[in-house]
Design goal:
This is Adenine deaminase. It comes from Salinicola rhizosphaerae. It catalyses: adenine + H2O + H(+) = hypoxanthine + NH4(+). Its cofactor is Zn(2+). Belongs to the metallo-dependent hydrolases superfamily. Adenosine and AMP deaminases family. Adenine deaminase type 2 subfamily. The chain is an alpha/beta fold and about 325 residues long. The chain has one domain: TIM Barrel (Alpha-Beta Barrel), CATH 3.20.20. Helix content is about 50%, strand content about 15%. It has 16 helices and eight strands. The protein has a four-stranded parallel β-sheet. A four-stranded parallel β-sheet has the order 5-6-7-8. Helix 8 links the parallel strand 3 and strand 4. Helix 5 runs parallel beside helix 7, helix 8 packs parallel to helix 9 and helix 15 packs antiparallel against helix 16. The chain starts with a helix and ends with a helix. The structure holds adenine and zinc ion (ZN). Adenine binds next to helix 4.
Length: about 325
């Protein structure tokens, strides 16, 4: 099954590129940029990745990304990820990045945009991989700051496939960003948002109502609200679920307790994703394999999940048709 899962054409819709920073590259970039890390060794970094909740992860996530300073750093980060993803049979990646976490350290917008875009072009040429770019806002910072970033990003509007919303969820409801998302809508930029990861089902409904999003990132809390489940089933609005992330951040206790089977059973359009693979013990293939180990799903279920992601990805119609055909041949 693992060989078959590797060959399955997988589409990744929920990946924080800064969360793909492996400890080895973190050390190499720290040395290149003369940045001191609070870790003595790679083993020490890995030992620190024992999280109690989302915030305990975010603290180390923002700390680790301080090594990213130049366009070349962002290129190297993304290219290393694309190489690993390609080896795992990932054919399309939608990477999100957090510009505010870089601007706050004096790293101007052009640096991540240009470094990531160059890596995306190279992955398309070298691996035949398609890619999309999501610019995310930090919900635990003021909405006015997000609005300023959106305006400053005007030179790149053509290459932004969507805007997103991430970081500490509880206490930062979607409505806080109503004006920012309204501005993105007016600019014709699609919208996605994390909702119902640690926060309640009400945040998912609010993100749909107020932010007019086309996808929900995580959304595992939806099962708390039957009417919302019904809405998600009827609308077929997709959820980008990240099972290994949910276990590592203690959203669920173990893989066996994960609500994915119940979500599928209720007809919610779910997809499998890795979130922050360097921090949560694996990439796309590991997430697929973990689901096989926990739920014993057959090939039909995995084809449905991969097909859901192809249906809702930001990609050309021609590319979508090509991937639908490849999936059918599996
Ligand atoms: N799992 C996650 N939830 C919210 N914000 C994030 N930023 C990076 N990973 C995240
Ligand atoms: Zn995420």
């Amino acid at each position: 099954m693992k060989t078959w899962l590797r060959e399955l054409p997988k589409v990744e819709l929920h990946l924080h590129i800064e969360g793909s920073l492996e400890p080895e590259l973190m050390f190499a970039l720290a040395a290149r940029n003369h940045i001191e890390l609070p870790y003595a060794s790679i083993e020490e970094v890995k030992a620190a990745y024992d999280f109690s909740d989302l915030q305990s992860f975010l603290d180390l996530y923002y700390l680790g990304m301080r090594v990213l300073r130049t366009e070349q750093d962002f290129f190297d980060l993304a290219m290393a990820y694309f190489e690993r993803a390609h080896e795992e049979g990932v054919v399309h990646v939608e990477l999100s990045f957090d510009p505010q976490a870089h601007l706050g350290r004096g790293v101007e917008l052009a640096i991540p945009f240009e470094g990531l875009r160059r890596a995306m072009r190279e992955a398309e040429q070298r691996f035949g991989m398609s890619t999309a770019l999501i610019m995310s806002f930090l919900r635990d910072r003021d909405a006015s700051e997000a609005m300023t970033v959106l305006e400053k990003a005007s030179p790149w509007y053509e290459v932004i496939d969507a805007v997103g919303l991430d970081s500490a969820e509880v206490g930062n409801p979607p409505a806080k960003f109503a004006a920012v998302f309204e501005r993105a809508r007016a600019l014709g930029i699609p919208r996605v948002a994390h909702a119902g990861e640690e926060g309640p089902a009400a945040y998912i409904s609010e993100a749909l109502d107020v932010l007019d999003i086309c996808r929900v990132d995580h959304g595992v809390a939806c099962l708390q609200d039957e009417a919302l489940v019904e809405r998600l089933r009827n609308s077929q609005i997709p959820l980008t679920v990240c099972p290994l992330s949910n276990v590592r951040l203690k959203v669920v206790e173990t893989m066996v307790d994960h609500p994915l089977p119940a979500m599928l059973e209720k007809g919610v359009k779910v997809t499998l994703n890795s979130d922050d693979p360097a921090y949560f013990g694996g990439g796309m293939l590991d997430n697929y394999v973990a689901c096989f180990d926990a739920f014993g799903w057959d090939q039909r279920v995995f084809k449905q999940l991969a097909g859901n992601a192809i249906d809702v990805a930001f990609m050309s119609d021609a590319r979508r048709r090509e991937l639908v055909e490849r999936l059918a041949e599996c």
